[in-house]
Amino acid sequence: MGASLSNLTEGSNGSATGPGLGDIPESCVACVFTYLTPPEICNLARLNRAFRGAASSDSVWEMKLPANYQDLLDLLPPERYLNLSKKDIYSILSRPVPFDDGNKEVWLDRVTGRVCMAISAKAMEITGIEDRRYWSWVPTEESRFHEVAYLQQIWWFEVDGVVRFRLPADIYTLSFRLHLGRFSKRLGRRVCNYEHAHGWDIKPVRFELSTSDGQQALCECRLDDMGEDVVIGGHKRGCWIEYKVGEFIVTDSEAATEVSFSMKQIDCTHSKGGLCVDSVFIIPSNLKEQRA
What we know:
This protein is α+β, with helices and mostly antiparallel strands and 292 residues long. Helix content is 21%, strand content 34%. It is elongated.
């Protein structure tokens, strides 16, 4: 069997007597590659010269790039992408592309080529953020933006944000990434402090989103519901939790979509604190399933 596989990969220029993969025209290989994922294409490129040539074809990678990939390139200095092949452009855009003073990032999912986005807490309007009695900025390697907003205590809790971008047509999910308790490293180990964590089990936090074309979504959730099963509900102290706000649909990729989002708990009958606000993610809704 090993010899048979060797014959297939050798082709007409090798020692094999029959036809092999090397005899397949590069144009035919390129047609097949349009149905494969980028990681699969890169793996097959190692087989022979025809496969390597097809795996570098602009016609293959043009189909893997989203329709608005030029909008992502425009966020970069022109010298970084001029005269590059489509394969190299895909590689560049698969890494985070910062914009808005580095407080927002957009990138292509490596497997599917779909557009993802992250918005840091620095890009949001946070009530009382300038008062160090309430909030502080904590540097950390656990955030893609290397810094999170930490709430010690406040009565009026409100976080608002907005992003305007030409997103490709797709269904997107918006979620907040939060952490109950303050974390740090001690003797090389991660430790959490819940000294200020209080008030989140009394009333739920209200999450909302709205788009420029009239779509809306909202949900309410207690961030510290200790009575809920941590496996089912996902509410667990000391872990980063992504709280899904809702979904929105983009049908027109030619027009910029403006998305507004917020999280609020403005019941002033009690204070709350001990919460880290990292970022907001806008991700294609079935991305995990498609990758699987």
